[in-house]
Amino acid sequence: MKATVHIFLKAGVLDVQGKAVEGALNGLGPVQGWGGVSNVRVGKVLEFDLTATDKAAAEAEVKAMCDKLLANTVIESYRIEVA
Amino acid sequence: MKAAVLVFPGSNCDRDCKVAVETTTGAQVEMVWHEETSLPSNLDLIVVPGGFSYGDYLRCGAMASLSPVMAEVVKAANAGVSVLGICNGFQILCESGLLPGALLRNSGLKYVCKPIELTIENRKTRFTSAYGEQKTVWMTQGNGDGNFFAEPDVLKGIEDNGQVVFRYVENPNGSANNIAGIVNSAGNVLGMMPHPDRAFEPALGSADGAPLFHSLMRVLQAA
């Protein structure tokens, strides 16, 4: 099965990269013809293959991976897709 | 005094830490590779050094915190052995759960590398008792992810328990409450972003890091 994990800083945690990108987008806006950008969050996406064939089992496995290594739940939240 | 300095792939202050501990305390210091599944016996101090373990990939300190040797460090810390994490070592201790909170990207987005002044907030810890009446210290800072964060209730707990050991005089990175270094609730694990290992004799620009190591010696001599 293929797993996809999306990891972002939690809503209450300042995302300084997101703020910088937001500033750049809004700064470029008048020239590029876009604008009004807010709440930019920069996250991570991980993709990997699993030998598991059962979806529920694979999801449980990936959740354990997130809690142990892939995400730091003090500051990050994650979303798992298994297909 | 018997000390160990951990070495991860990407550590770069491991030798600095060894020299700092040896020079300031005369201790016997062993270097311990991260794949070890046991620590030298009768350790008084374990230093988790600065650097870029595992290239800072995924999150600073995340993969190092799951190294085989860290399971032994957690056991030793729970048994009361002194553990000092500096810079990347602080990040590793937070990731391992030995210290509360986490270190985020610096609020100014820049790698901050400069001498920095700190106030000593708790001079009763085993890491600070030798500072006497000294109010502030100079050490150097060198990191891109030194912005200490903890949830409000965790932060309040750290403050109320006197776990804040060092604070920045001028906040260089957005750290909550200007926090530069904290101890665990038992007081035997210290994590700090500034480097006492780069400030232990005047030739380095500051000797203000030396009393930190002297403090640990005092504890042993008193025991």
Automatic annotation (TrEMBL), chain A:
Q: Which reaction does it catalyse?
A: N(2)-formyl-N(1)-(5-phospho-beta-D-ribosyl)glycinamide + L-glutamine + ATP + H2O = 2-formamido-N(1)-(5-O-phospho-beta-D-ribosyl)acetamidine + L-glutamate + ADP + phosphate + H(+)
Q: Can you tell me which residues the record assigns to a coiled coil?
A: none
Q: Which SUPFAM superfamilies match?
A: PurS-like
Could you list this entry's UniProt keywords, alphabetically sorted.
Answer: ATP-binding, Cytoplasm, Ligase, Nucleotide-binding, Purine biosynthesis
Question: Per the annotation, which location comes first and is thus the protein's main one?
Answer: cytoplasm
| Pathway assignment | Purine metabolism; IMP biosynthesis via de novo pathway; 5-amino-1-(5-phospho-D-ribosyl)imidazole from N(2)-formyl-N(1)-(5-phospho-D-ribosyl)glycinamide: step 1/2
Localization? Cytoplasm
Gene3D superfamilies in the cross-refs: Phosphoribosylformylglycinamidine synthase subunit PurS
**Molecular function terms, GO-annotated:** phosphoribosylformylglycinamidine synthase activity
What is any Pfam family matched here? PurS
Q: Which InterPro entries match?
A: PurS (IPR003850), PurS-like_sf (IPR036604)
Q: What does this protein do?
A: Part of the phosphoribosylformylglycinamidine synthase complex involved in the purines biosynthetic pathway. Catalyzes the ATP-dependent conversion of formylglycinamide ribonucleotide (FGAR) and glutamine to yield formylglycinamidine ribonucleotide (FGAM) and glutamate. The FGAM synthase complex is composed of three subunits. PurQ produces an ammonia molecule by converting glutamine to glutamate. PurL transfers the ammonia molecule to FGAR to form FGAM in an ATP-dependent manner.
Subunit structure, as described in the record: Part of the FGAM synthase complex composed of 1 PurL, 1 PurQ and 2 PurS subunits.
Protein name according to UniProt: Phosphoribosylformylglycinamidine synthase subunit PurS
Give the taxonomic lineage as stored in the record.
Answer: Bacteria, Pseudomonadati, Pseudomonadota, Alphaproteobacteria, Caulobacterales
Automatic annotation (TrEMBL), chain B:
Q: Where is the active site?
A: C87, H195
Pathway annotation from the record: Purine metabolism; IMP biosynthesis via de novo pathway; 5-amino-1-(5-phospho-D-ribosyl)imidazole from N(2)-formyl-N(1)-(5-phospho-D-ribosyl)glycinamide: step 1/2
Which UniProt keywords are listed? ATP-binding, Cytoplasm, Glutamine amidotransferase, Hydrolase, Ligase, Nucleotide-binding, Purine biosynthesis
Q: What is its EC number?
A: 6.3.5.3, 3.5.1.2
Gene3D superfamilies found in the cross-reference section: 3.40.50.880
Origin, by domain of life?
Bacteria
Q: Reaction catalysed by this chain?
A: L-glutamine + H2O = L-glutamate + NH4(+); N(2)-formyl-N(1)-(5-phospho-beta-D-ribosyl)glycinamide + L-glutamine + ATP + H2O = 2-formamido-N(1)-(5-O-phospho-beta-D-ribosyl)acetamidine + L-glutamate + ADP + phosphate + H(+)
Q: Name one Pfam family in it.
A: GATase_5
InterPro entries with a match to the protein in the record:
Class_I_gatase-like (IPR029062), PRibForGlyAmidine_synth_PurQ (IPR010075)
What SUPFAM superfamilies does UniProt report for this protein, alphabetically? Class I glutamine amidotransferase-like
Please give the start and end residues of each transmembrane region. Answer: none
Chief location: cytoplasm
Location in or out of the cell: Cytoplasm
Read off the CDD domains from this record: GATase1_FGAR_AT
What does the annotation say about its assembly with partners?
Answer: Part of the FGAM synthase complex composed of 1 PurL, 1 PurQ and 2 PurS subunits.
- PANTHER family, per the entry: PHOSPHORIBOSYLFORMYLGLYCINAMIDINE SYNTHASE SUBUNIT PURQ
What this chain does, per the entry, is described as: Part of the phosphoribosylformylglycinamidine synthase complex involved in the purines biosynthetic pathway. Catalyzes the ATP-dependent conversion of formylglycinamide ribonucleotide (FGAR) and glutamine to yield formylglycinamidine ribonucleotide (FGAM) and glutamate. The FGAM synthase complex is composed of three subunits. PurQ produces an ammonia molecule by converting glutamine to glutamate. PurL transfers the ammonia molecule to FGAR to form FGAM in an ATP-dependent manner.
Put simply, this protein is called Phosphoribosylformylglycinamidine synthase subunit PurQ
User: Which gene codes for it?
Assistant: purQ
